[in-house]
Amino acid sequence: MGRRKPPHQATRSTMATTLEPQQQTAAVELIGITKSFPGVLANDRISLAVRRGEVHCLLGENGAGKSTLMSILSGMVRPDEGAIRIDGREVEISSPRRALELGIAMVYQHTTLVPTLTVLENLMLGTGDGVRLNARRSRERLAELAGALGVDIDPGATTGALSLGQQQQIEIIKALWRGSRVLILDEPTSMLTPQGVEELAKVLVRLKAQGLAVVFITHKLHETIAMGDRVSVLRGGRLVGAIEPEELRAAGSEELHERIVNLMFRGDADEAEEVAELQEQVEGRRTRRSLPADPQLELDRVSVAPQPGEIGLHDVSLEIRPGEIFGIAGVDGNGQRELAEVIAGQRPLAAGEILFGGLSIGRLKVAQREKLGLRYVTDDRLGEGTVSALSVGLNLVLKQIGHPPFWQRGRIRHGEIEATGRRLIDEYEIKAGGPGTRIGTLSGGNTQKVVLARELSFDPKLAVYNKPTYGLDIKTTQAVRERIRLQAEEGVTSVVISTDLEELLDLCDRIAVLSRGRLTGVVENGPAAAGQVAELMVGRIAA
Amino acid sequence: MTETTTAAAEIQSSPTAALAEPRARQLGVGADFLLRSVLPLVLAVGTGAIVLVAIGVDPIQYYKDIYSGGIQFGAWQDSVMRMAPLLLMAVGLIVVFRAGIWNLGMDGQFLFAGAIVSGTAPLLEHHLPNTLNLIVMFLLAGAVGAAWTIVPAVLKARYELNEIITTLMMTFIGINLAQVLVKGPFQDPTTTTPQTRTLDFRALLPSIPGTRIHVGIFVAAFAALLVWFLMSRTSFGLRLQVLGASVRAARHMGLDVPRLIIGSFLISGLFVGLAAAAEILGIWGYQRADYNPAFGLWVVPLVFLARLHPIGVVPYVFLLAAVSIGGDYAAQNANLTPRFTLLLVGLTLLYMALSEWLARRRELGGSYLPGVAARRRRAVARA
Known about the structure:
The complex is a heterodimer of chains A (543) and B (383).
Chain A: H1 7-19, E1 26-37, E2 40-51, E3 54-59, H2 66-73, E4 81-86, E5 89-91, H3 96-101, E6 104-107, H4 119-124, H5 135-149, H6 164-177, E7 182-186, H7 194-209, E8 213-218, H8 221-227, E9 230-235, E10 238-243, H9 245-250, H10 253-264, H11 269-283, E11 297-304, E12 313-320, E13 325-329, H12 336-344, E14 351-356, E15 359-360, H13 366-372, E16 374-377, H14 392-396, E17 407-408, E18 411-412, H15 414-427, H16 444-456, E19 462-466, H17 474-489, E20 493-497, H18 501-507, E21 510-515, E22 518-524, H19 529-537
Parallel strand pairs in A: 3-8, 3-9, 6-7, 7-8, 13-20, 13-21, 16-19, 19-20
Antiparallel strand pairs in A: 1-2, 1-4, 4-5, 9-10, 11-12, 11-14, 14-15, 17-18, 21-22
Helix pairs in contact in A: 5-6, 16-17
Chain B: H1 2-13, H2 17-54, H3 59-70, H4 75-98, H5 106-124, H6 130-147, H7 150-159, H8 163-183, H9 216-233, H10 235-245, H11 247-252, H12 257-284, H13 295-305, H14 313-334, H15 340-361, H16 372-382
């Protein structure tokens, strides 16, 4: 007591800590983080450490507090209580800028790129070495990082015109740009193909070897098991469990699976059971059904002119039978959106013909196709599928504007809209206060349920689903897939576009592969389908 | 901000959110109204006072003069008369702004329609009964105002050309063309002053019995009610709102986007034209070549303060009318240019930007931007 250590000694000891093996010092340490929002305790005394050379998986259902915790780490939200240590030193992360200075970079699930700028311009934004931008050096850096990630990106493409998947790849490159030491990935695989996920896994290994600490937020258990070194599970704002690296390596994947599900749904036996059941359903493959032979939807050498940064569609021919669930697989940005939009009528045909029940619809407008029973569940549920300022009830009838019973002689009938809203909220198990709730306040899963309810409840004949479960948690994902199956059983022809091969194998009768805007083959779903589709996806044309 | 939204989404999906929501919202709306719709006015008045002090004018006296010049001693009747064109114009702007379209060519539409009306009304005066002449003139003005939006409307609908640029360009053309008409074909041959023939005062809009106020205010009030009905009760109003929220959503919902764009442009032009008719036929009876009240400039901040609500804008319009009428008087007394009132309007705009930022920071929701505010209020009213 009383005598202070001489300053040089203190310095030496700090240096010693930083040089000690990785396991000893955490790159980032969160201690007792608490954050409440009006009415909700989002984070309740959460403590966890992210170490160098480790992929730290953060698991939890929607609303478990993952996003809030990561918002705190990336400087967007200030905690009410608790401390953050970086390399053993206590810091205050007062702004996103400060977080970047501290070497913490975050890749969001939703894009933060400036849509009107090119890829290169986006990457040069705020890289801030001097006033002048160095395009040549930036181009080299992009090539280097793109090479490391194994992705192919045109530096001159306008970002807004790229697919969501490509935009996310740019986000990852942007995060790595300034040599961050801690990388937070918010559901990075939700838009990638199986190959893309494998590539990401390889990249993660390389990043770990370079001493980066990675936080990996995900819903998918098998990814956690495959890629994670350490697992933390959040539930209701609390840290309810953690799995150490030794344990993770030692345990079998079945065992881990069970353990994580238990952690995520602990204390709720019914829920855990339900999830286990749902998981079983995922494993079970669809049985073949006999379908009528006359095609419901026919695409005859359909081409679509590409918009800037897009691939377009070239000579796509398809025949889909009534009641069939037809899958479209492929890496994001290979013409999926073009295909969905040309069927829905949101984009003009450049060449070819589309027949719906034998009727040529290639020149019909969106509303006319809608009247024939064609439905499109868009992948952009926030920007295109809903109007966030309007109520749930109105969003449910947005495709019926002006039509009875919701409008009579041009006048709105709130009573009808409310009654229908109430019925659909019930039927589709949408968690919303009521039909009058603003849809912008709903979670992603519930928003998607509203979109599905709207598309599927007014006598559909054919529905095109574009990435129907993207960004949803397990339970909602299962609910959505169940809904697609149910509709198919009722005779609704379905086209499911997805970058999640598992999903297509789970749902579809047949699966076609889109690659660079062309159809490279169609595969009957069955035990061998996974391998065949994967081969088609890398570009081999089926015999 | 992506992040706060994800955080918010998380909160919403948790079970306790249902309990917390209504309380948080009600608090939000009260604070919201003060912050966004009142605070900018208060700050503008405050800053105006500082400026007045700086140039050696007693601000208290100045604001008192505005009051006595705009409200007291029957001046309120002038203010109500000034309301007619302002309200008609505001209502027209609300239609396009709700559709997410920036028609900023209202001054050109106003002057051009005004020139046509003041040029033709005196000619028809002796051929038609007064009432019929007035009705024809209102229709003509509406048609001319609407016609003046066709070029920007079609350019936007068909070629997605930015309407801010095209409407501003059309304003320059409209203002100058109005001058050419007034100095040329419509020139009053009995005078050398560049102005049109003067309509006989008995042929002007009649006054409400017992006042000086002309009936243009009724036209304006009816227009406000009509637009309120259109926007909140009809399918057309909802279509416009969807378009205003997102063009992509509108396309996805199968709406005929080009038709909606042209339709909303025409309606706004129509009301701006009616505003010109109300002002020319109610007050002046003629138009001078250099006439340009620049009402459009005054009205833009108002419609946003009222959150694009056609009824909600009425008190703001009255306030502005009184300030503009009283401002002339006050400026005269203080030896300032009457344009000083514009400074207050400009300051209001500036502080609106500030309060928008403040409200966003406090995450009160809502916005001056189309669509958001009205729905929000309704949702709260229902809850």
